[in-house]
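Dataset card, provenance and construction

Sequences and ligand SMILES were collected as paired inputs. For each pair, a complete structure of the chain with the small molecule in place was predicted and serialized as structure tokens. The example below shows a pair involving adenosine-5'-triphosphate. Curators did not alter the output after generation; any descriptive sentences attached to a record were derived from the structure itself.
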Amino acid sequence: MSDLADLVDSNTNETCEELTLSNGIGTGLLQNDSVWCRFKFLKKLDLNNSELSTLPSGIEALSPTLEILFLSENNFEAFPECLGNLNRLRMLSLRGNRLTELSSSNLPKKSLVWLILTNNQISRIDPNVGELKELRKLMLSHNKLSSIPSELEGCKNLELVRLANNEITTELPKEFVTLPKLAWISLAGNPIAHCPQTKEKEILKSSVSFTESDVLGKGASGIVYAGKYSGKDVAVKIFKQQSMGSDGNPEDEAAINALIDHPLAVSALGFFLCDENEKHEGMVMPLLDGAKTIGRVPSFDTVTRDAGPTNDAIDLDRESVLSIVWNVATALEHVHRKAGVSNGDVYLHNILMCKVGTARISDWGASFIYDGNHDFADVFERIEVLAFGRLVQDLFDWYLNSSLPDLTEPADFLGRTRGVPLESGPFYDLVQSILQPDQHKRPSFKEIKSTLSQLPEFERARHAADRVACS
Ligand SMILES: Nc1ncnc2c1ncn2[C@@H]1O[C@H](COP(=O)(O)OP(=O)(O)OP(=O)(O)O)[C@@H](O)[C@H]1O
């Protein structure tokens, strides 16, 4: 291939909206500035894994349309200047590069909502980060940050922040953790987060068997197989090694799984280690018969919100919806109160529903442990209360055509017309107190569970959950 123009002529159409030039296809050819202005409709460009350390300014010709740019697994040491002129860019990934600093100087401040900087060398966040006013999702796991600047409070739209596996030793600024829309945060693998030992749940690899063809499901951090352990049918998750996942490390996921013990939460029976490096290789969980997730992971459009129901959960009746609400609230009340654990990823795509219809919360890959006596204990719980509110909001939107009172987001996040407003009453009041910007005024999970338990419409859900606990 000698020329990008040839490549473009032979493989694509200039009216295309998406172009993939990853794995070196575009390397050395990017300099052909005249090519870029021929793309009048390009919304998404993938230049992953191409040994790039600079971008030619010709790429600015894409600014009228380009929304999504992948520059992951390259050699960038700084944000290329031309990025700041891509003024429709909403999503930018520079995962797995050599960045040492996050500064908003060369970023499109008015348009950027989703920034992925996982697995770089970032040790400093410039105070000008607060200028990224539209930012909703910031992925910074696997970097070298030792502190977070209070100026992050300027990012009033931040909803999800990943900070796992950094070197954070100092308190997070209060202005940041009390941001009005912050609902998902991960902090494991930092000196400020606790990490217990999992020795008591270590099991011999030889005691677990599974066949690679028997896949139950795939997640970002590993694959789950049907298998056997101690004569029982189980689910076996094999972690991707060195995956530098956006959420955190298998070690932390394993450590937290070892702490979770609740019938409405899916957690580990045991872990086994790699023979070579003693790292966690796999995890054994109780097998949930016919387990299916309820939500689809967020899309480029929905950013921080699940994209909609899975095909396995297209139709859920009111009874099922209320049962999911009750089960998730109950499990979260338990893990926050008993273990000081924040799940960090409370989403319908992490709720597993088994054949008989019981919903359980799963996936502790973004979780972290906090000190229940610490000043921030309430803060971490109230952040997750908002994530729970988002989950309830999605359930009512998808299945009951009902819109909940949302004081954090008076206009719907996708600009859609939502369903019929929820009728006023105690449930309305509860939801309104959950979906509000002032963290202090949100209820704890204990209070949420207590209010739900007094509502007659949740009685059947309560009894069904009690039966699961007794079985
Ligand atoms: N205990 C289980 N029993 C039956 N199926 C399971 C069990 N745990 C997981 N699965 C299946 O495997 C899929 C992947 O699970 P996993 O927890 O790895 O995914 P995930 O929640 O997407 O996590 P990740 O953060 O790793 O991407 C689930 O969606 C589900 O279909």
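Derived descriptions for this record:
Residues 205-286 form a domain with the Phosphorylase Kinase; domain 1 fold (CATH 3.30.200.20).
The CA atoms of residues 165 and 189 lie 4 Å apart.
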